[in-house]
Amino acid sequence: MSESKSQRNESIMENTFPMYKVDAIVQFFRTYVLTGQEAKHFAKSDITPNTKADVIQRLYMRVLHLLYGLRPECHYVAPLCEDIQCPTLHEPAIPVMNVYLSMCQFLPTCHTYDFSLNDLLNPKPKRTITILSGIQNFLHFRKQRQELFAAHQLTFQADMDKLRAYNRGIKEAEKKIQKLMIIPPEQQAEAKELAAALKETNTATMQESQEVTALNEQVAECKTVNAERSQKLSQKKLEVATQKDEIVKLKSQIVESPEEIKNEKEKLKENIKNVKNSKELADEMLVDLQIKVQCASQGEADVQLILKQLHDLQASICKANQQKEEVRGLVTLSETLQKDLKSIGNEECQLKRALAMKLDKESKQQIRHQNKKELKAQHVQSVIGQYDKIHEKREEIVKRIKHIDSETRQFKEKMQNLRDTCNQNSEKAQAIYDRLLSTLEHYHKKIEAIVMEARAEKMKMKMVI
User: Fold this and answer.
1) Is 111 in contact with 134 (CB distance < 8 Å)?
2) Is 463 in a helix, a strand, or coil?
3) Cα dist. 415→144, 166, 227, 410 in Å?
4) Sign of CA dihedral 375, 95, 131, 40
5) What's the predicted TM-score (pTM) here?
6) Are 117 and 100 in contact (CB under 8 A)?
7) Residue from 99, 97, 40, 92 nearest 68 by CA
8) Cα dist. 323→4, 311, 313, 337 in Å?
9) Interacting residues of 100 by C-beta distance below 8 A, sequence separation 6+
10) Helix locations, 184-257, DSSP H
């Protein structure tokens, strides 16, 4: 037993997920797992200091229902594959064992491998906090993965639409390429004329490019000449500036006349007297201002003291009014509480009667719930089968997309090869055409020479005759 406890403690210390506080765990399970009255009544006191086994078992059932669709009613059903003697004796243990088995299968995904029956029947606060924090971490991860999966689904649909549009564009482009590759017989003569015009334009552009290069060279030479001239101008400007400085130095060395010096000294003395008089007047003004400032500061201090006293009086009056209102409120509360006590006594009698009616209704509703459970189980199995079919269809569509991508790549490669072969064939045909023209011209020249020789022989024969 001591070894098992030590192993459990080591496993708790080696958790890879973060440990949350009890308040954070309660808030999370209230918002994301529990609903209705269960969320309102679930509190911190259910976990610490004394964990409540009923609340923890119900919480695990809700977690399994959220993840796997296992409703709490499913845990109360005994397995059909086993022959159990006296099933009524095993009914209290069936829900606990079902929850235990399903949690043992689920918790390894949360990186908690030491779950036991004692955690359901007699849970402890530390163990329950570690298990709940692991489940909370897994649910956070599950929520993030679901958001990513939804985003991937949206992108997949957009990519499918794009792929369809691309396939349509490829088919239309193939049709256009076929039309463009075939030159109609009416336009073949125009095509030959255009080819000749292209050759002429190429030769003209080559000549113009040569002329442009020559002009660029001339412009570069002109720029170098301008740079040299600008350097010479800057040197001359520096010489002029140095000469001006020398002239200023020479002017300063010239001695002024003594009469002008005396006049300037007298003017300076008068300015000094005026400055002294203005200083004395300013000092007198400063003294008057300082006296006035001191008087104003004393008046402000007196005003502040009076204001403080007024604020204290207002605060005391407000406190007295509040105390009077509180006394009146307490009197009214006492009267209302007495009335509420009488009404609560009457409500208790009514609630007892309502409880008896509800117990009768619940016994009838349990029978209805069992019938509904069977129908819902069949519906769940049908939904799971439909989900498997949809998943298989999705995999088939992905395979088709990959096959279509490979076919498009092969088709593009074939198109490129066909274009290359067409270009090669056109070049070969052009070469054969040029050879035929040269041979025809050669034969025409030979025929003309033969005709000329025949005409000369005829003329000689006529002259002889």
Assistant:
1) yes
2) helix
3) 45, 16, 58, 9
4) positive
5) 0.35
6) yes
7) 99
8) 64, 19, 16, 21
9) 115, 117, 120
10) 188-253
User: Cα–Cα distance between 378 and 372 in angstroms, integer?
Assistant: 10
Low-confidence ranges of the chain (pLDDT < 50): 1-13, 80-81, 255-256
Share of the chain above pLDDT 90, in %: 0
Contact 416, 178 (CB under 8 A): no
Residue whose C-alpha is closest to residue 128's, from 71, 197, 54, 207:
54
Give the span between the Cα atoms of 132 and 48, in whole angstroms: 13
The helix or strand, by DSSP H or E, that contains position 114, with its residue range, turns out to be none
Which pair of tokens denotes residue 133? Answer: 């924090």
**Cα separation of 62 and 71, whole Å?**
7
> How far is Cα 96 from Cα 100, in angstroms, rounded to an integer?
6
Torsions phi, psi for 36 (to 5 deg): 65, -135
91 vs 74: CA distance, rounded Å: 13
How far, rounded to the nearest angstrom, does the alpha carbon of residue 72 sit from its chain's CA centroid?
39
The whole-number pLDDT of residue 122 equals 86
pLDDT of amino acid 302: 58
Q: Give the Cα separation of 440 and 435 in Å (integer).
A: 9
Report pLDDT for 116: 86
Rounded Cα gap, residues 50 and 37, in angstroms: 21
DSSP state of 35: -
| 160, 216, 386 from 392: Cα distances, Å | 18, 71, 10
> Structure tokens of 56?
């923890």
How does DSSP assign 107-158, residue by residue? GGGGT-----THHHHS--HHHHHHHHHHHHHHHHHHHHHHHHHHHHHHHHHH
